[in-house]
Design brief:
The complex is a heterodimer of chains A (about 325) and B (about 290).
Chain A: H1 2-5, H2 21-63, E1 66-67, E2 75-76, H3 80-87, H4 89-120, H5 127-139, H6 142-152, H7 158-163, H8 180-205, H9 209-217, H10 222-250, H11 254-259, H12 271-281, H13 285-312
Antiparallel strand pairs in A: 1-2
Chain B: H1 2-8, H2 15-18, H3 20-49, H4 73-80, H5 83-114, H6 120-129, H7 139-148, H8 155-159, H9 166-177, H10 181-189, H11 194-205, H12 207-223, H13 226-231, H14 240-249, H15 255-283
Helix pairs in contact in B: 4-15, 5-9, 5-12, 5-14, 6-9, 9-12, 10-11, 12-15, 14-15
């Protein structure tokens, strides 16, 4: 750009000899201007988050100390919303469900994701096509996932058809309070494991090959190579997957909402569903905000881990 | 070299063992194929059912190849509710969200990766900490904010809270950090403006990360159910997930036609993935995969 050459002496091509004092002034000015550009690039995102993330969260904390139904003005009631929640058996059951769901889904997703990645990484020709096929489950619209699985888990659905020859009786997956939550965890694993497979695969491909060559020379078998080389080197990735998976599962809404509607009873109700119902079905905005604060506290713990990981990570994760 | 090895080995006598590596590979491929197939069975089931007669869905034995292909399920499903309108709405929202993410996450990612202003570390922390504030957590107050703006039942209202995601910012920052700063300095010395550096030097080098960002931000807003459910109450602005759930609840709509809508909803995401696949694989760091 021609107009800049008049400002920046380095652009004019006269770089012979030490720069005169005048140019040092311009250079400083130039650096500052570049810094301003950097701030300008970040600013829209910060403003956006101020309006749609931090602002609402502060509002939620404030609302949680109020009674508010969107008709009359908010009324300050102190900790009553939280006291009510603590005494509410439905809230307690929901909280427990959320923890069971997060733990179950995260553990299984991590194990299945890692196993799939190891299977793909064996170097079998055609493995990448298998990977792409499996990854499609992660791209299918979540609403289609929920509808399809609701039919597949029907007493006369495909899952029972497949299990029948194995001697398993017909299971009412979604109407039995013992199987409903595990069924939803299974759908979650089906949905998320292929995504984490990709994350694990990227980590596996980046592992240094000479360790394996050395181990092979020493006569270490495949299993020992996995335990003593792969697993320790993968630890940061495993930790990352656990944290991200837990964050994804903590906010789950559509799967229980559509597949079981939170039932039978409250067996599959999770916190995000309770927030929606309390706020928009019963118009108890203050109480819903209090549940939001609880969910926020859970997310805060996982995010703290995640940010520490991000600060150290060199690889690009999504 | 392999032939030398086998010639020297006493195992050479057993000709079956000589092919062992190949046998193991073939067995591995078969096992892996079965595994992959097991994962995509629900997708196949959905597709087959969208061509089936209504009563075939709850048969004791799934009929994988329809005896009669009911192609008319497709026009029937689309005409029973305003699904064309719903898909258009979803498309508009998802495209705007995707473009918003691509633009703003690239800007912010560049700003955080290559500019060192005071407080840039804090800014990164502030941005990353919004990961603990997904819409599910801030649902009630975000609804109240949109209500205050009087954006209920508008496209702005549907799009606004989804426009930027912290994951995208981080992804772009990581990707841009790997571009040598010398390129940028050289361009500055040549007199290139900051926006031109961004467009002509940074963007072409982080296309894989941009592809990953594009497909995930498109998918996430295409999937979005809770937010439209909260902010939209008129039929004209419904997105297809809302329409589809309503369609399933209305009495008498055949479930096969729900599968039709599910198939049609799946196509755009798969299509986008097919277009971007090569680049997405590189963005994930899978270019080394055989």
């Amino acid at each position: 750009m021609a107009d800049l050459t008049s400002i920046n002496p380095y652009a004019s091509g006269n770089l012979s000899g030490p720069p005169p004092a005048v140019s040092r002034f311009w250079q400083m000015h130039h650096r500052q201007r570049i810094r301003l550009w950097g701030i300008a690039f970040v600013l829209p995102t910060l403003l956006f988050f101020a309006v749609f993330k931090y602002g609402p969260m502060m509002w939620a904390i404030e609302l949680s100390f109020n009674s508010y139904d969107m008709v009359s003005a908010p009324r300050f009631i102190g900790l009553d919303n939280y006291r009510e929640l603590a005494a509410d058996p439905i809230f307690r059951e929901t909280l427990l469900n959320t923890f069971v769901y997060i733990a179950g889904s995260t553990i299984l997703t991590t194990i299945v994701g890692l196993s799939l990645a190891l299977a793909i990484n064996t170097g079998i020709p055609g493995a990448r096509y298998c990977m792409t096929a499996m990854f499609l489950t992660n791209l299918m619209p979540i609403i289609a996932v929920c509808l399809v699985w609701r039919f597949l888990l029907h007493p006369y659905g495909l899952v029972n058809q497949i299990l029948q020859p194995l001697g398993v009786g017909r299971i009412d997956w979604l109407t039995n309070s013992w199987t409903a939550l595990p069924a939803i965890i299974m759908v979650t694993v089906w949905r998320f494991a292929p995504y984490f497979m990709v994350v694990f695969l990227a980590a596996l491909l980046a592992l240094p090959e000479d360790y394996y060559e050395a181990a092979e020379l020493d006569g270490a078998g495949a299993f020992r190579r996995f335990i003593h080389i792969t697993l320790p080197l993968l630890m940061p990735t495993i930790f990352f997957v656990v944290v991200v998976s837990a964050l994804l599962c903590a906010r789950i809404f559509l799967m229980p909402y559509l597949i079981t509607g939170g039932g039978p009873g409250n067996a599959t109700r999770v916190l995000s569903m309770l927030i929606y119902e309390t706020g928009f079905s019963y118009l108890k905005m203050g109480q819903a905000a209090a549940i939001s604060v609880v969910l926020f506290a859970i997310m805060l713990v996982f995010t703290a881990f995640q940010i520490r990981l991000f600060a150290r990570s060199e690889q690009v994760y999504m | 070299m392999a032939s030398l090895d086998t010639a020297a080995s006493p195992r050479n006598a057993n000709s079956l063992l000589r092919y062992l590596p190949n046998v193991r590979r073939a067995a591995g491929l078969v096992l892996l194929g079965i595994l992959a197939f097991a994962f995509i069975v629900p997708i196949l089931w959905m597709t087959v059912m969208s061509f089936q007669a209504g009563e075939k869905m709850f048969q004791l034995r799934t009929e994988w190849i329809p005896t009669v292909w009911h192609l008319e399920n497709y026009p029937n499903a689309l005409s029973r509710a305003a699904f064309v309108q719903y898909f258009v709405n979803s498309g508009i929202v998802s495209l705007i969200v995707m473009i918003g993410n691509v633009v703003f996450c690239t800007l912010a990612g560049y700003g955080l990766a290559k500019f060192h202003f005071r407080g840039s570390g804090l800014v990164l922390l502030l941005i990353l900490s919004t990961l603990m504030l997904p819409l599910e957590v801030t649902l009630v107050p975000t609804f109240l904010v949109i209500h205050k703006f009087e954006w209920m039942n508008t496209y702005q209202g549907l799009v606004a809270p989804l426009l930027i995601d912290a994951f995208g910012v981080f992804l772009m920052r990581q990707s841009i950090m790997s571009i040598p700063s010398d390129y940028i300095e050289a361009a500055r010395i040549d007199g290139a403006g900051e926006l031109r550096i961004l467009l002509q030097i940074i963007v072409p080098q982080c296309l894989p990360a941009l592809s990953v960002l594009a497909i995930f931000s498109f998918r996430d807003s295409w999937d979005q159910f809770l937010w439209p459910l909260t902010v939209v109450s008129i039929d004209k602005l419904r997105t297809y997930p809302l329409g589809l759930v309503q369609f399933g609840e209305d009495y008498g709509n055949p479930p096969t036609e729900q599968m039709v809508i599910a198939v049609l909803a799946t196509l755009p995401v798969f299509l986008l993935f097919a277009i971007l696949q090569r680049s997405v694989n590189r963005g994930f760091g899978l270019s080394g995969l055989k």
